[in-house]
């Protein structure tokens, strides 16, 4: 799969499968990880996670908005990545990525993001991507800076967790900036 556009150096992106439910369910018990990526949700039963994974496995993209699994080149599921707010008219989109805690700091998020950016910039003609990062997520801030993203804004008191409000940073990367990095 060396020439497969959805493969990087460490990971490949693929649809979520019904059989992925167990790893996603295990990840639901990592509340601190949930804080970094999104929010802490109400508990979900195994049946609920199975139903969610089953539904994801048959979901078609809505426009260019998609949710994909991230797996290592050896086939181990390590997280997910999704796009949202895809606007073809303006050529802009947003994304979010979540790596299961046992796989942090191995380069999987960086590689998955690069695969996603390559497809959206080089195949779909998008010209800019933005990522929203919580101010307390130092790992994600460092990741986006390492990938060449520029901090474009700070939204004050946007995130409430652990009994307090936190800022949210907006990072952006244009296609021309991306091309200089590749």
From TrEMBL:
Coiled-coil regions listed in the entry: none
Family matches, as Pfam families: Acetyltransf_3
Positions of the N-acetyltransferase domain: 11-176
Official protein name in the record: RimJ/RimL family protein N-acetyltransferase
Species: Paenibacillus aceris
